Amino acid sequence: MHDVFMSRQPLVNRQSKIIATRLTLHCSQEATVMDAVGMLGGMAASWPASAKPVFVTSGRTGCEAAILDWAAPENAAIELPAALLVGAEGADVINTLQTFQPTVCLHFDPQAAQALASGVRFRFIGFDAQRFQVSQLKVLAARTRACGIAIAFNVNSSEQFRTCLDAGVTAAAGWFFTSPTQTTAKALSPGQANIVRVLNLVRSNADIREIEAALKVDVAISYKLLRYINAAGFGLSCEIQSFRHAVTMLGYEKLNRWLSLLLGTASKAPMAPALMHTALLRGRLMELLATGLVEKSEYDNLFITGAFSLLDVLLGVDMERALEAMRLPEPICEALLGRGGRYQPFLDLALTSEADDGPAIAEQAAMLGLTADRFNRAQLQALSFADTMEL
């Protein structure tokens, strides 16, 4: 089977939460849609089990009827262009869709009216935000409301995101929320500064009583920390009921990982929920990609590198200012500041997985000796982790 790599985009709703993910399939020059079907079938054990929809599009490869040979999981939504339903293979495609009834997202194009009249049930109607004016999108979303849930794709800015939602779509796909704002704060907020203080105490292996005293300054921090640790994604066999218990069960190194995430919960950023989900996913993805390629003692550092890659956006300060208050290992700081180091290739690949560039993903993965199967599987596992940990 020839290589097929996946990239992804989140679908964000009005509450700034990621409610679904869009996977784009990138086939190598030799690969076909059947290779993509085989790859998807092989991912069954790693496929996210949450109720959140996972949209699948063949992207620039072009959609063929063969994509329907995939035994799609219940939460998968196959994206189909209207042309596929009204073209030469249309009758067979319609019969397949009516027989097996997979969840389908219809791409709205000039032939959409014919496709909507075909009798096929569509759960979603996808609109390319780059093709329609806001006034057009508003009319089309209203006219197709009874046919499916309106979704906007290829949204590139926060302004476009807001106008699409105002036009009547339920969610919009894109990475518009990950860019830092033009205005940055001069210092961390008191809540953020206290979390950094606790982090530094943990990193320096301070006495438990000293760390507990710092946590008591802000009871909300302790509460949020215990919620994270007890989340299903952590996989503990018993419930952690106190910080002292957490230290006993996890040790300082593991605890440092989850304290790091608390910085994001102190964020006042409008898109904080989507940013936190993305930070969790990046952290877990970097850890999975590096498994077996670095020492086990470095896995937590790789997780923190990915989780901190959006620290400037979450905290509203530039990255250098965010890092100068923390006693982080040099490889983490080097990667986050774009200065190279041994963690940089893993962060670069994690970021490339969010771009619509299959050849770049393949090249970056090859540099690390990673196969398409391992890369794709790691993405799905990281997505499952972020969905589970979302609080």
Determine the number of helices (DSSP H or I, runs of at least 4 residues). 18
Helix content: 40-55%
Radius of gyration: 22 Å
Strand order of the largest sheet: 1-2-3-4-5-6-7-8
Strand content: 5-15%
- Indicate the structural class: alpha/beta
* Uncertain runs: none
Principal-axis shape: globular
* Oligomer state of the chains in this structure: single chain
Explain how this protein is built:
Helices cover 49% and strands 12% of the residues. α7 crosses α10 (243-265) and α10 packs parallel to α12. The chain has helices at 33-42, 82-86, 90-100, 112-116, 134-143, 158-166, 190-203, 208-216, 219-230, 243-265, 272-290, 299-307, 311-315, 319-324, 330-336, 344-352, 358-367, 372-389; strands at residues 4-13, 18-27, 54-57, 76-81, 103-107, 124-128, 149-153, 171-173. With 391 residues, it is of the alpha/beta class. An 8-stranded mixed beta barrel has the order 1-2-3-4-5-6-7-8, surrounded by 5 helices.
Topology summary:
Layout: E1 4-13, E2 18-27, H1 33-42, E3 54-57, E4 76-81, H2 82-86, H3 90-100, E5 103-107, H4 112-116, E6 124-128, H5 134-143, E7 149-153, H6 158-166, E8 171-173, H7 190-203, H8 208-216, H9 219-230, H10 243-265, H11 272-290, H12 299-307, H13 311-315, H14 319-324, H15 330-336, H16 344-352, H17 358-367, H18 372-389
Parallel strand pairs: 2-3, 3-4, 4-5, 5-6, 6-7, 7-8
Antiparallel strand pairs: 1-2, 1-8
Helix pairs in contact: 7-8, 7-10, 9-10, 10-12, 11-12, 11-16, 11-18, 12-15, 16-17
Short key terms for the protein model shown above:
391 residues; eight-stranded mixed beta barrel; 18 helices; alpha/beta
